[in-house]
Amino acid sequence: MDTQLPIVIVGGGPAGALAGERLARGKRDVLLFDEKLAWEKPCGGGITHKALIQYPFLGEAESRHNRVGHCELISPSGRRVRFRMQYPVAIFSRFALNELLLERARAAGVELRQERVTRISGSNGDWRLTTPKGEYRAAYLILAAGARNPFRAQFLPPISAHDLLATAGYFIPGRSSLLQIQFLKGITGYIWVFPRPDHVSAGIAGKMGETSTAELRRTLERWLEANGFSLEGARFFSHILPALRPRTLATLEVYGEGWAMIGDSAGLVDPITGEGLYYALRSAELCAEAVLAERPAEYKLRLEEEILPELRLAARVAQRFYSGQVFGESVLERMVSLTSQSESFRNLMSDLFAGIQGYRDLRSRLYRSLPSLMAEGLAGTLRLPWSGSGLATDPFAESASRKQQPLKGTAAG
Predict the structure, then answer these.
(1) pTM, full prediction
(2) What's the Cα-to-Cα distance from 122 to each of 33, 106, 143, 259, 392, rounded to whole Å?
(3) Where in the sequence of the chain do the CATH 3.30.9.10 domains occur?
(4) Which site in 141, 158, 186, 250 is 20 to 30 Å from 172, CA atoms measured?
(5) In angstroms, rounded to a whole number, what is the distance separating the alpha carbons of residues 144 and 17?
């Protein structure tokens, strides 16, 4: 690699900014192009405990995020359960998160250019990038410009519509301390309500082609109205996310001669949850390490060891998660029911939200938990609804009854 020329990163989101910072700290010249730089993005903005441990500076930026420790799950039939997450989620606005990461990149020595790249030509070792302000040369190219990266087709096939999630939502004025997830009938996706520091991000995601964006928006608006959320002063958004199918992930390519893709550009998003921030940051880190070591092929090897097995397993079970049956009931209904009845299952759900429970060992943990799950479920079934009987009272019984009622406003949790 010609170290006389800079490394160029196209895209200034979390993946691009962190890759730039790590490369600059490794004494490489880095140019980062983004036509907006720090900007708001339509997503929840949740940073899991796993990500906070890996990147502690995110947790230290307390003024920029809302630490949320309570979650409400709502089944397609309307069954509700709230539980405390052992490890709270740090929820950023994407503007604040991008701004923080870009500040760190600039401090490390990255040259940030607020310019739109309109053309990429050249080849390994001598790339040429054109913007409205001029032409730039690069020794290595990192693409971090999202799922609809306009340059992806120069290097790889474009991401198919069958491998995408459509999202629609609103940024709603107000404050809350409750994270909410509503699963839906007939939609491979869900409604989310993520309380950010000074507003609420409420959105809906569904497989592209399964339901139109207009219908997703109508479904969300009906739900928000029914749950007491006012859209006065709210801002609408829509976006797409990768949700790659098993066949796509099986042959996924993320790098070639003189170039690499990271984050959403590479399709590194959980196909079940749509969570991509941890994968964006970790792929950026792995890519930067490989480039600094002058062994860029190791980037794909590290993904194969650490990230891709999880995403491939998630892709294989995604359809069963959203539309499958277990013990005569839908997986989603059973999951919410078990969360309500079982402390063991609540702990498992808490670990899933924290990112510390992976898919690969989830089945074995469920098998290990079966005796306690069955005992707790049986105890809940046999427990009498009146007090003063001499039996131990169920601390979740009263709240479970309340949770069947629609929420009014952005509940404090």
Answers:
(1) 0.88
(2) 17, 27, 15, 11, 73
(3) 46-54+66-91+160-243+324-382+392-413
(4) 186
(5) 9
